[in-house]
Amino acid sequence: MFKYVSPYDISGAHSIGQSHCSSLVSRLYNFNKTHPTDPSLDGVYAKILKARCPVGSAHNSKKIVAMESKTPNTLDNLYYDSIIKNEGMFISDATLLTNRNTRNLVFANSGSTKLSRWQQQFSVAMVKMGTIGVLTGNQGEIRQNCRVINNHRRD
After folding, report:
1. CA distances from 44 to 39, 47, 67 (A)
2. What would the pLDDT profile of 107-145 be if each residue is shown by its tens digit?
3. What is the pLDDT of residues 72-96, one digit of tens each?
4. CA 77, 82, 85, 86 torsion: positive or negative?
C-alpha cells in the first residue's frame, strides 16, 4: 500500500462527468485585460469549448460540456494526459502544471501504463476523504444548495 497519497490523485475525478458552461466561460471569454481567453489553454481545445459554450451561455443552465473529452464516461487517468496537452477544463487543472511537485504528479499519473497505479492511488485517496469528520449539530450543516449557506431563522 502507498504511504503517501496526494490530494492531486483525486483531481483525476475530473476525467468523468460534465460541467455547466457557467463554470468556464470566464476562462474562455473574459480571462484578463490582455488575454480574453486563458493563454494556458490549448487553442484548438479553446475553440471546441467556445463552440459548445458560446458567449452568453453562462446564464443557460442547460449548456454543459464533458470535463474530459476523450473518455467522458469512464473514470480513468486520461485526464492527466489532457492536462499535459493544456486541455484541462478548469483553471485548477491548468494550475497543476505550474508547480514542480504537482507537475511531477501529473506526469506520474499520465500514460496508459500508469492506469493501475493511478487507480490504486485514487482508491486510497477516496477512502481517506471518506474518513474526514462530518460536522454535525452546531458544528456545521448540510447545505440545501451547495453554493448558498442555509437560511436559518432565529426566533
Report:
1. 12, 5, 16
2. 988 887 877 888 888 888 888 877 777 776 777 777 778
3. 888 888 999 999 999 999 998 999 9
4. negative
Please tell me the total count of domains within the chain. Answer: 2
- Answer yes or no: do 99 and 27 share one domain: no
Q: What whole-number distance in Å separates Cα of residue 72 and Cα of residue 87?
A: 13
Farthest CA pair distance, the chain: 60
Range of 103's domain?
A: 1-16+73-155
Report d(CA 130, CA 37) in Å as an integer.
37
Query: If you write DSSP's letter for every residue of 29-65 in order, what string do you get?
Result: H-S-SS-SS-TTS-HHHHHHHHHHS-TTGGG-TT-EE
Write the DSSP string, 114-127: GHHHHHHHHHHHHH
Whose CA is closest to 4, among 141, 104, 148?
104
